[in-house]
Design brief:
Elements lengths: L1 H8 L3 H9 L3 H8 L5 H13 L3 E6 L7 H21 L5 E5 L11 H18 L4 E3 L7 H14 L4 E5 L5 H11 L2 E5 L14 H17 L3 E5 L3 H13 L8 E5 L4 H9 L3 E8 L4 H10 L1 H14 L1
Parallel strand pairs: 1-2, 1-8, 2-3, 3-4, 4-5, 5-6, 6-7, 7-8
Helix pairs in contact: 1-12, 5-6, 6-7, 8-9, 9-10, 12-13
C-alpha cells in the first residue's frame, strides 16, 4: 500500500526538496539514472550495446511550464540523436518521450507537443531508429493516442505505451494490434482513481495477461515492459502459441533493475531493450521507480541508513 503514498510524494515540492537535499540521494539515484548529460551516458550506451543489449533512451524532465522549456526538451533529444549518429548506434538505440515534456499540458498543448515531437521522430528515422510515446496519467491519453496516430502516417514505426491497470487498455490494445503498431505494455505507474483503473495487484496482473495475448495474436510488434518473472514466462509462452519468432517481439526492463535477467534473455536470443534515463530533473522518474516495486523502496531506505 506504500505505492500510492510514494506517488503522492512525487508531486510534493516539500518532499522533492527533502529528498534532493539528502547527501545519500545521488548515490542511490545513480542506480536508476546513470548520468545527467549525453557525455555521461555515452559509455553506458556503448557498454550495454557491446553486451548484446538494445536501449531506449529517456531524457528525464517534468513540470514543463513554458513553451521555451518544451523547446529545450525537444532540443535535448535532437542532441542525443546527433550523438547516436556519430556513434553509429542508431539501429540499437531508440528514444522514449513523454509528451508532457514537449508542452502537452500548456495552452494549445496538443498542437505544441505534436510540433515539438515531430522533428525528434524525423531525426530518429534519419539515423535508422524510432521513438516510443510514453503513457502518462489517464487524462493525457486521448492526446497521446491522437499524436501517435498522426505521426504513424509518415513514420509507421513510431511506438506507444499502454498501461494494463486502466480499464480502457483492452480496447486500446485491440485497436493498436489491428493497425500493426509497435506497443510497449506496462502495468502502470501513476496514481489513478478506482473509476478508471484496477487497484489490486492480482487484477492488474490478469489484465496484463489479457492485453498481452491480444498483442501477441495481433499484427503489431509487442514490447513486454515487465520485470516480473511470471509475466516474462507467460509472455514467452504466448509468443510461442502465436507463432512469433524471437525477433517479432521484445522484452524491456529498466536500467538498474534485474541486470542479470537482461543478460540472460539476450543470451537466449531474445531482443532485450534496457530503458535508460538520464538528465538533471530526475525526481519524478525516481519516485515512480520506488512506487513500482517494494524492493526498490527497500533498497533506497537501506542505502539511506547505511550511507547517511
Amino acid at each position: 500500500m506504500l505505492g500510492p503514498v510514494i506517488l503522492a510524494a512525487s508531486r510534493s515540492d516539500r518532499m522533492r526538496r527533502l529528498i534532493s537535499a539528502a547527501p545519500v540521494t545521488k548515490q542511490v539515484v545513480d542506480r536508476f539514472i546513470p548520468g545527467e548529460t549525453v557525455d555521461d551516458i555515452v559509455p553506458i550506451v556503448e557498454e550495454l550495446t557491446a553486451g548484446g543489449l538494445e536501449l531506449t533512451m529517456d531524457v528525464v524532465g517534468e513540470d514543463i511550464t513554458t513553451p521555451e522549456q518544451a523547446a529545450a526538451a525537444r532540443d535535448a533529444y535532437l542532441a542525443l540523436i546527433d550523438r547516436l549518429e556519430g556513434l553509429e548506434l542508431g539501429g540499437r538505440v531508440e528514444m522514449s518521450v513523454k509528451l508532457s515534456m514537449f508542452g502537452q499540458a500548456l495552452d494549445g498543448g496538443h498542437e505544441l507537443a505534436l510540433a515539438n515531437v515531430r522533428p525528434v521522430v524525423e531525426a530518429a528515422a534519419a539515423i535508422g531508429t524510432t521513438v516510443t510515446l510514453d503513457a502518462e496519467d489517464h487524462t493525457t491519453l486521448g492526446s497521446m493516442f491522437a499524436i501517435h496516430e498522426e505521426l504513424r502516417k509518415d513514420f509507421p514505426q513510431t511506438g506507444c505505451v499502454i498501461q494494463a491497470y486502466l480499464f480502457r487498455t483492452e480496447a486500446d490494445a485491440r485497436r493498436l494490434a489491428a493497425s500493426g503498431s509497435r506497443v510497449r505494455l506496462v502495468k502502470g505507474a501513476y496514481k489513478e482513481p478506482a473509476e478508471v483503473a484496477y487497484q489490486q495487484k492480482h487484477e492488474i496482473d490478469k489484465a496484463y495477461v489479457r492485453v498481452l495475448r491480444t498483442l501477441m495474436e495481433g499484427e503489431g510488434y509487442p514490447m513486454i515492459g515487465s520485470h516480473d518473472p511470471r509475466l516474462i514466462s507467460i509472455a514467452q509462452e504466448l509468443a510461442r502459441k502465436a507463432g512469433r519468432k524471437l525477433d517479432e517481439y521484445e522484452f524491456q526492463m529498466l536500467y538498474g533493475i534485474r541486470g542479470d535477467e537482461h543478460v540472460r534473455l539476450a543470451a537466449e536470443g531474445h531482443r532485450m531493450r534496457v530503458y535508460t534515463a538520464y538528465g538533471t530533473d530526475w525526481y519524478g522518474y525516481f519516485m515512480r521507480r520506488l512506487a513500482e516495486k517494494p524492493a526498490n523502496l527497500r533498497f533506497f531506505a537501506r542505502s539511506m541508513l547505511t550511507r547517511g
